[in-house]
Amino acid sequence: MRMTFRCDPKLADHLVRPYPARTALPDWLRAMPAKAHSDIHGRDIRTVKQCPPFVDAMAYGVMIPLPCDIKIEAGRFTWDWDIPEPAASGHPRAPLSFHPAAQFAAAPFANGRSAIKFNSFWTIELEPGWSLFAMHPVNRDDLPFRLVSGLVDADRFHDGGINFPAVWTQPDFFGVLEKGTPVAQCFAVPREAPELVFEAFDDAHQQAYAKVVADVLAAPNVYRKHFRAKRGRLTR
């Protein structure tokens, strides 16, 4: 699978490139202890830092970065980003634009305010038969916004930018959203729908189920040692 990112030639030296999600694991995860005391269990137990599915989900795919610092004060967004006039007609220069609240007023995530839209400075092309799934960075509730998920047929739509709408979730936020902050986590998904098959356990599957459950309960790291697949590194 190849993901091809392209940008306006006048902006190539001014943009942060999308980067593998595995390189953007947050500081709070890195600082989290591997074990913590549980009053319920009366002993130390493993934290989610030792849960491969939790970490692997955060490390999967590609992050789309914020192209410049954005200052937020009392709901006002400002930036100081000096870039050349793009060569392509109709290309954005501002890192943000907005969706009026009326566009999603009936959605459960609506908060009565306009949604922000992270403008795209990269086009994304996928191989035939694949679509781009964009979502909020996994398990990143520390970010002061919540991205609205979307699916784009980027094997066909790849000559225009894909923008990323989000709801701002911290109205009292004062500070800076820093350049390079991940705003969307993206990965390629096959467009062909899977065939769904439903079966009851036969004897072999019953025995396999009982063995796996017993192994998991008997020792730590069973999934990590015996089932977790080795992941190839994304190349750039």
Automatic annotation (TrEMBL):
The name this protein goes by in its record: Uncharacterized protein
Organism: Bradyrhizobium cytisi
